[in-house]
Each structure stands twice: as structure tokens, then as C-alpha cells.
Amino acid sequence: MKKILLIVVLGLLCCNIAFAEVAGRYKKGEGPLKISKNTADILEYYFSGGKMGRYAKKQREPWFGDLMIISVDGNYTNYFVTPIRYKDNVAPGHYIGRAISKCKKKSGKECFLFARKNKILWDNGSDKKKRRLKRKDIRAGKTLQILQELGFYDGGTTQKISNIKKKSPIKKKINKKITENSDGDIVEKLKELKKLYDDSVLTKEEFEKAKKKLLN
User: Fold this and answer.
1) I need a surface site. Which of 14, 45, 56, 122 has the fewest CB within 10 A?
2) For residues 33 and 74, is the Cβ–Cβ distance under 8 A?
3) Inside any domain, residue 118
């Protein structure tokens, strides 16, 4: 009877461990990630217990960052912190799932676990040992530097480039047509421009600029 009981207990333990590994693999981020400047500032705030960086302020009660969730585009976060006096008595709860859900709702994108306490779990291929931030480095204000060295942050350059508005192909075509046919029927061209403006293809400013170009 004891042998049977022992086998059942071991079986349950193995199932729980296997489930934890699968769940952990699903929730932890993996692959390239470039975070925005704002996300980097939030991470500095999180790792330092609110004492360092752009968002630093005097805390009423000392705390440590418990878990950090980041969206796949690096623009959105959600995190949990724990007061230091409760570090050995954290209330049970599915905090990772709740944080991921909130991040998804806010960003409209997939979100994954980035860090637990001061250890970065998002695997982008960088050195695992270096992904555990040392408290002395955090206190020395090296968080952003470490994020850059690990390849998670480039000073916001990637995000700035992705946010530059590209010129609409339709508007490029309109400008080309005006230039090539400047000797044609101006009235007809003005009608065309007015229709494009009425159809919201052109803004008022673009319409006025194009009209001025035609009349000149």
C-alpha cells in the first residue's frame, strides 16, 4: 500500500513539474526584442525599486519588482511589485496570467514574461549570467547600459525609425502627375484635386499646396 501511495505522489509531482516547465516556456519571451525608450525607463524604475531613472520618486514604502511583462513590439508593459516587508509572505495568486492579460488588452499584441525580480527571463540569445542584474550595478545607474549590452535596447533608435510616417504612394502619384502635366487643362486638374480632397484622400493642407502648385 505504501509503495502504491509513493508512486502516486511521485507521479503527481512529476506532472506538476512538467506542467510548470510548459507553462514557463509559454509565458517567457523568446527571440529578438527591441524596447522603446519609455519601456527602458520603466524597467529602470522597476529594477531599482522606484529609486532610479526618469520615473524615480520617493517611495512611501520600500518594494522590489516581482515580475515584468512586455509586449512583443517593446512598447507596452505591465508589472507587479511587492513591499519588502511581505517578501517572505506573498499572497497566492496567478499574477503572471493577470499581468499578461492586462498587457494584451492595453497593447492589442502578444505579451510575455520579461523578468522575475532582478533576473531577465526573456531569452534573446544573450548570456544568461549577464541577464541577472546585480544590485550594485542597478544602484550605480547602469540598468540602461546593461539592457543595451544584452541587445534589448538601442536608445530607442529602432522605435523612432518605425514611427516615422512614410509618404503615401497615392500622394506621390498625385505630385508626379501635377509636375508632368502642368501644361494641361488646369480646370480639370483642379476638379480632380477637389474630388480627392472631398474623398479625404488629401488633407486640407495638401489640397491647398497642390492647388497652389497648379496655379503657379
Assistant:
1) 14
2) yes
3) yes
Domain's final residue, options 138, 162, 186: 162
List, for residues 65-121, the tens digit of each pLDDT value. 999 999 999 999 999 999 998 877 666 668 899 999 999 999 999 999 999 999 999
Strand order in the sheet with 111-116: 77-83, 63-71, 111-116, 119-120
Q: Which residue has the cell 524615480?
A: 56
How far is Cα 144 from Cα 40, in angstroms, rounded to an integer? 7
Cell of 208: 491647398
Per the CB < 8 A criterion, the answer to whether 89 and 103 are in contact is no
The predicted pLDDT at position 9 comes to 35
- Tell me which amino acid residue 59 is: Q
C-alpha grid cell, residue 122: 526573456
Whether residue 174 sits in one domain with residue 144: no
Q: Domain of 180?
A: 169-215
Contacts of 195 (CB under 8 A, 6+ apart): none
Phi and psi (nearest 5°) for 165? -75, 125
Cell 549570467 maps to which residue?
A: 129
Which residues, 6+ apart, have CB-to-CB distance to 193 below 8 Å? 174, 202, 207, 210, 211, 214
What is the model's pLDDT at position 24?
44
Q: What percent of the chain has pLDDT over 90?
A: 50
Q: What is the spatial distance between Cα 154 and Cα 167, in angstroms, rounded to a whole number? A: 25
Residues 50 and 71 in one domain: yes
Sign of the CA dihedral running 10, 15, 18, 19: negative
